[in-house]
Amino acid sequence: MTSQVQLEELKLESKPLTPANQPLEKYKVRTENLNAWFGNNHVLKDISIGFLTNDVTAIIGPSGCGKSTLIRCLNRMHELVPGARTKGSVLLDDSDIYGRGVDPVSVRRRVGMVFQKPNPFPTMSVYDNVAAGLKLNGVRNHVVLDKAVQRSLEQAFLWDEVRTDLDTSGSSLSGGQQQRLCIARALAVEPEIILMDEPCSALDPIATAKIEELIASLKEQYTVGIVTHNMQQAARVSDFTAFLYLGQLIEYGETTNLFENPKEQLTERYPTGKFG
Amino acid sequence: MNLQFITGLPGVPGETVGGIAPAIQGTLLLIGLTCVIGIPSGVLAGIYLAEFGNNKFGKAIRFLNDVLSEFPSIVVGILISVLLVVATHQYSPVAGAVALSVITLPIVTRTTEESIKTVPNSLRDAAMALGIRRWRTTISVVISTARSGIITGILLSIARISGETAPLILTILGSNFFFSAWNQPIDALPLRIFHDAFQADPFTRQQAWGAALVLIIIVLTLNVGVRLATRGRYSSSRTRL
């Protein structure tokens, strides 16, 4: 494993909260020396990274580098896996979501998530899928639900396609529509941050283009984090990009800078396909 | 077969009148009681094992459950008979239902656990990521997705117990009359078949065949009825990708 050797040679130290050393209050969420494990497997090593409010931050890196784990730590989904644990802090609006007495459920309401494979609830209609987060948290008022469903579907660019089929099964939609349905479902609970874990990897190019367009419009209201395998996608949709390798944050900066003049040798080599 | 057969009391040997109404009533009563005692316990145990049973206690329960499912029904019958019939000196519908519940418990527990385990984790993740609490996720997302498997297990167990004879001989005894009190013997279709099939009188032997047909019709009707009543709106839709 030559790349392993290279990494040790780099002697990475704890990096500052790039990009461009913004003042701390501009970060919607940031981690400080975040470590994560699955059992004995140390998958994230001292990550300090911040996502700026109303920007899209992409996380790139080869498979198994800890990209998904990193975003799953930001809404405490990581700990749902048996044997998983974390150390370090994640500050959401400057309060630690791993602090004593913090209810993970309330964190997840503020930090929404969209997964790799579209996963609508198969026993629910399109309407109920979108309303699920509210309904299952006790919202019964139909006016409120109707409004939230319409708003979320509009924000997810799906309203026009499903407005007449709100009663059909969520899983009868096409793959791309299902993924937008999942985005609408996440938006319905009015989170502050939307995290997406390779949202387009199961979709065709046209559906991917729609989701990318959607991401661009979401950042008006939300802070967006997206994990992707696809370098071009990171370049297209994100304002900032972080490059992760073997659980370490190698480089983080403005997307254009990172792709055009990477500071680290590894960052230069990965997108151009020389390793990974 | 005529109306008298369905609604009448068993006749006197040698005459050609008589019915199996007490047996039909008894079987329905036993199925009903078992649905109240055995099936909820089995479903709850299955949910516990699937969602929270990944520990030593869960393993022990799973092991005991497997052992129980291999118990011959006559052993269950004699056990419950000793505990409830001998202790109270009364044959009773309750003792019969408890014995049948012990037989349904492992079937329902196992099928519930297995069908919940087939629900993909991605659905649990999706629900948890929406800030839905764990118990709510289990009830509204996981169980609702596993519903048809759970119902299949329940129906299987009902089909199984509606034909059980051995434990009933030891717990409800059999009777020629309708249900009268919770501490009196009752009749049931399998007992009626067992009893009638060995009579010398040809009319009574015919009644055993009739009772067998009625038993099959009851099980079939229950099956179809429950399926129709619990059919989810989208249970037949496939996931397209």
Commentary on this structure:
The complex is a heterodimer of chains A (276) and B (241). Chain A contains eleven helices and eleven strands. Chain A has 276 residues and is α/β, with parallel strands linked by helices. In chain A, the strands form two sheets. In chain A, strands 7-8-9-4-10-11 form a six-stranded mixed β-sheet, with helices on both faces. In chain A, strand 8, helix 8 and strand 9 form a beta-alpha-beta unit. In chain A, helix 4 packs across helix 5, helix 4 runs parallel beside helix 7 and helix 7 runs parallel beside helix 8. Chain A starts with a helix and ends in a 7-residue tail after the last helix. The termini of chain B are far apart. In chain B, helix 2 packs antiparallel against helix 7, helix 3 packs across helix 5 and helix 4 packs across helix 5. The chains are: A alpha/beta (276), B mainly alpha (241). Chains A and B meet through helix 3 and helix 7 of A and helix 6 and helix 7 of B.
Question: How much of the polypeptide of chain A forms β-strand, as a percent range?
Answer: 15-25%
* Major protein interface: A-B, 37 and 30 residues
Please mark out the parts of chain B with pLDDT under 50 across 5 or more consecutive residues, or reply none: 236-241
In whole angstroms, the N-to-C terminal distance of chain B is 54 Å
Mean pLDDT of chain A: 87
| Rg calculated over all Cα atoms of chain A | 19 Å
Percentage of helical residues of chain B? over 70%
Order of helices and strands of chain B: HHHHHHHHHH
Distance between the termini of chain A: 11 Å
Question: What is the ordering of alpha helices and beta strands of chain A?
Answer: HEEEEHEEHEHHHHEHEHEEHH
Computed CA radius of gyration of chain B, to the nearest angstrom: 21 Å
- Label the overall shape of chain A: globular
Kindly state the number of beta strands of chain B.
Answer: 0
Low-confidence stretches of chain A: 1-14
Structural class of chain A: alpha/beta
Put simply, the count of helices of chain B is 10
Strand order of the largest sheet of chain A: 7-8-9-4-10-11
> Quaternary state, please?
heterodimer
